[in-house]
Design brief:
This protein is an alpha+beta fold and 142 residues long. It contains four helices and seven strands.
Length: 142
């Protein structure tokens, strides 16, 4: 159902990111997964690296004609499954949506520095009310 995005997908992703007012910083095909139906791109999302072991689930988009079919939920679940660390971070203004997956709003003192910088640098220009949230994936504590 999901596959890695290709360089050919990136122009369509860029167009939708701009139209949907999503995080378009440092877009790279190797960060994205895509879903296709009948060969056509219908949804996408990425794991964005920041360095220092900090990654963010983000830039989740579903084409307008495909909304209401569960694509967004499936993209989020798949990105969580593939996430490279136990701690899954997001920055979003859709807190109620992401709480359904188990994300919780982070107190300001627990937001990684890279995400604090992003909130100041990017998020305020895209949407109001963007906050950092996190989900801890199950795993070994050893």
């Amino acid at each position: 159902m999901f596959e890695p995005a290709t360089d050919d997908d990136l122009s369509a992703i860029r167009e939708h990111v701009q139209r949907f007012r999503l995080d378009g910083e440092r877009l790279a095909a190797d960060q994205f997964i895509v879903a296709r139906e009948h060969g056509r791109l219908v949804a996408f999302g990425r794991v964005k690296p920041y360095g220092g072991g900090v990654f963010e689930l983000g830039t989740v988009g579903v084409l307008e004609s495909e909304r209401g079919k569960g694509w967004g939920d499936r993209v989020v679940h798949e990105l969580i499954r593939r996430f490279p660390t136990r701690e899954v971070y997001i920055t979003t203004d859709l807190t109620a949506y992401f709480e359904r997956f188990g994300f919780e709003r982070l107190p300001p003192d627990q937001v990684p520095a890279a995400l604090k910088e992003k909130l100041q640098r990017i998020c305020g220009t895209l949407r109001d009310g963007v906050v950092a949230m996190a989900l801890t994936r199950p795993g070994n504590d050893s």
